[in-house]
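During the reporting period, we have paired protein sequences with backbone structure tokens. One record among many follows, to show the layout:
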Amino acid sequence: MSSISLRIAELVQHRDSSVSEIQAIYGTTKAAKGSRRYQQYIGTQAEIRYLKRIAKLVQRRANCIHKLFSRYRLVREAKESKSYMKYKKIQAEIRYLKYQAQSFPDFTATVIDDIPSVSFSRFLPRRFAQRQTLRHGRRGAPPTLPNGQEQPRVYESRVKLKRRNRARKSNSTHNGNSGFDSDSEVTKDSGYNSLTDDGSDSDSDADIEDMNIERMMREFEEEGVTLSNPCDGTKEMMEVELEKWEEFCSFTVRQSRKENPSSPLIRIMQDPHRALKMCETSYFKTYLFWRVKHSRIKKESSITTRWKILSMVYARLAEEYMKEGVLYDMRNWIPQVLTPAFGLDDSEKEKSGLFVEDLCRLQNAHWVRDTEVFAHERLRVQLSPFLALAGCTATRPKALVGLRYEDIEFQLFPPRVKGRPPIVIMKLNLKRIKRSGGKRKRKVFAFYEAEDLACCGVTFILALALADGAFKNKLTSLRDVYSLVVPPDTDRIRLQWDEDWAQRPVFRDVEHTANGIRVSLTKALDYSKHRHHLIRLGRTSGFEKKLEFYDLRRASGKRLKEALTPEEHRQIMGHRGDVYERYYMPSFIDRDCQAIYLGSTRRDDLIRAVGRLVCHERAPKALTDVQKFDISRDPKLLELIEERAQCVRDLKDHGFPTIKSAKKTKWFEKHKSIQADINTLKRQLKDDLLEKSITEFHKTVHTAEVDRQLRGIRPVDIITPRTFEYELEERGKVAKLLFKPLDGLTEDQILQVRVELVDNLMGLCKKQETPHQYKAPKKRGRPKACRVYASTDDEEEEDVFQGETDVESDIDWETKTLAGGDSDTESMTSVEVKKPSVVPVLYCPFCKWVDVEAGPLKREHVFSRTDSLRRHIRAQHLCPQAAGEGFVCPYRGCSAFLGSALHFVTHTKHQHGLCL
């Protein structure tokens, strides 16, 4: 109250001064109406009235609480009085006035906020009320008795009191009034669950009383329609479709101005949002027609998806669903008019599945028969558990792409036989899953060490974690895990992650560093690269179909549906309703309907074998040299190459010696665009030709086989397996251990095989095979490439001119320094000049002695020409090294510190006899 009184005194003084100024200027207060001083005077007067009103209410509330405290001991008794109802009314008015304080200056609002919301229950001694309740029951302390006839009832037994209370409770329940004798009121009389601080019975009552209905209605009206909240991927697709709609509107405006400048369509299409919200079917049909004509859309389902996204864009702009009549019209127009007009493919996508037999074939091809060189061998190791987990969890692939170590937990349980190693269980928590019904419902799985090592995700994930040193206890091998013993006072041991590694992804990508290609610590492998690896692996395995991760999801969902209840199946798949039947159920019926009808012995295994994906080991895996030559003679490709050559000639005519020197010019951007078109066309032609070759092979191979056998040429009964040689010793051991038959081995021997497998997988995670074609790290602005090994053709020289990375372009040969760097002449002057006595061997010192992860062939490779070695060193090693703060000479036994790339070139020439 003292703060309110002080504030009122200040305001009265301010008001009096304002009145004096008004009277001195205008004569009277009414004459000053409309002026700034008059508005200040009115505001001050209103604030004084407001503070006086709230001060009066606070005083009345205090008097009311004092009266209640003097008459009643318990809250229950006080609620039945008229004074309490008066207190409630005063309290509600105070809350309303406190809400109005937001319209006054900050100081007044602060003063009002400091007023406590006093409750009558605060003045009741809680422990006293509790003691009275425990002694005398829910009815509280016995009142003063007017006569002796009621005295025995005060001290009646507890049994009788309970019977009477039950009867009272049942009567109040039948009457529809719970009163204050309900079970929820037992603790209220004790003071612990009594009235809230503002005097209401509950928080919900206080919220209702605080509500200003008119104000809330105005706010909700201003907010407008509450829009849907799609996921980020859907928002990106909506933005792309909106851009296409705006492009279509611009195209329509340009064409209309040429044909009919006074057309009203010009004014409409100049505002794309307005045109979209008009919801005219003619506009939508013309847009879809234009969309198909100016794109590579070949399937009806694709344009149907574009239409659905456009309808979502409309709903977001118009803040309402599209009219049902428009949807009905477009739903029938697309298949009946648009599809025949462009010959769109309306066939349904084949819903095939990769079952466990196919997964084993993939793993065998991945580790035994695959000759492709990964950028880093960790990528090869990562692919196996990714496939296994995708099949076992039946989840969408993007849920595994960003998997972090914190999403995985290894738990050790006691073995069934004492003295044996603990049972290793992996708990997998999938958080990044697709929303279902607007919500993300995470899924948690548990996996144990499988009998089939090739399909055991636990073993591979353990190898990745041990190779990274991700455990908090610094476990170094699987032997350390198996040596642990679960103590008898707990049911399990939980292996914790290192704090730094917990936030890092498990399946990581590679990056270019000064020492070559290394596995990134923070960058997760993109879904597109996972998909590329799976497609290439499917080609290696001989599958006719281009594999996708949803093949694993469909196969796993099929097996789960056969084994689980519908509710469990929908939970694992993340579906609602009949989504599986509509989008995942394969067209092939893998049941022996013949045996079911005829009553014969069922052969479901044969039926399922028919439904599996077609595979042949001799299927084409890559293009032949003849096919590559045919692609190089494609007319469209030759036309683009000629345009690129003409662009290069234009650059020379304008005085640019190299393409790189023409950066930020229109000729450079034109060359860059043409080069991108060439790369895109090449990739498209190669993919189409390979797909055609594979389809043609599977169409003719069996006819040729039958003809061969009819001529008497029988296939050999036993096919001699091919002998595979691997550059890295660890990969050979992994391939042998993964597919080693475990039948007949003891449990200790199987554990030893698993330990040896994990050790070799850990070693493989830190190795690299020698690439067939090693490319330089790309800089921002344009792609660059450089071959590692020698080449005698002229194509290499042409590629260098087309803009490959070269240290010479980064060095100012007049000042002998790097561009933007300091000279290092002091360190070069101390070099002792020596003429080499013998011709040096042309190997790369960085690959031979610095790159610890390089393969044996790369370490010992000898270049055939000095210029090839020079390009390799400058592009692969000196450019990254030059960006640092110097480096030590890579030659063995030489400890010279080199400050720049030019310093290394000079040092190598004089000290090691190699002129670069």
Remarks:
- Confidence is low (pLDDT under 50) at residues 119-156, 172-209, 774-837.
- The first helix runs from residue 2 to 26.
